[in-house]
Specification:
This protein has 233 residues and is of the alpha+beta class. It has three domains: 50 residues, no CATH class; 59 residues; 119 residues, Nucleotidyltransferase, domain 5. It is 29% helix and 29% strand. A five-stranded mixed sheet has the order 6-5-4-7-8. It has a three-stranded antiparallel sheet with strand order 1-2-3, with no helix packed on it. A two-stranded antiparallel sheet has the order 9-10. Helix 2 crosses helix 3 and helix 5 packs parallel to helix 6. The radius of gyration is 19 Å and the shape is globular. The model has no long low-confidence stretch (mean pLDDT 80).
Amino acid sequence: MSSVRPECPNCGSERTVKYGSLKEKSKQALKYFCNDCKCYFSTYSRTIFWFGHYPPSAVLTAVEFRMRYKLSAAEISRIFGEKFGIKIPKSTISYWVRDFGEQLGELQSKFKPHFSQVWHADEIFVKHVVKLRGAKHRFFDYVWVVYDDQLNIVAIHVSEKRDFQNAKIALQKAKSTAGFSPRILVTDGLQAYGKACHDVFGRETLHEISHFAFDQFFWNGRFWLLSNNCGSR
């Protein structure tokens, strides 16, 4: 986040001060106060997310889960709660699909977050129902999610198998989206991640295995507590 004070969207003044943060874990969404016109505004003022309490990355990922991968609102709510510690009501997800579904691709390009150098990758077992020719069919898949330590989702991949090829595809998608390789990749104990990390990111990326327990890791002048279960933070 830049240290430059943003202009007030109401009067254009630069005499603004930070005034807290929105109801979310992301540090990219902040509240401000203008000393000239006494107006309050936020990072998302005068954008499509102006009245929301969730970061655009969470909103658009939930919509993508629903529209592109056909996950139910209940499954999406469970994923965000268990994996990221973010409680999103099922009704809220339905509203997002209604309001942002048709603009998904455009909004993902416009509100692309600034990803950090520490990424996490994990797989979530889900079931979803698809109606084909008037009949409901249940499918069971793995959702691969790559996200950074600010809980910005870098990439999503859905597969029937939990293997090396799909681990590699998930990491390749993440690298393509972010435009760079992370300095640290944290995963669970799935062996496929080791070779996939080396093939996609090379030797510059450190692969750290940590699932539920936090492992202490020193990098870039500070100690990091790394775990692949961010929902327990």
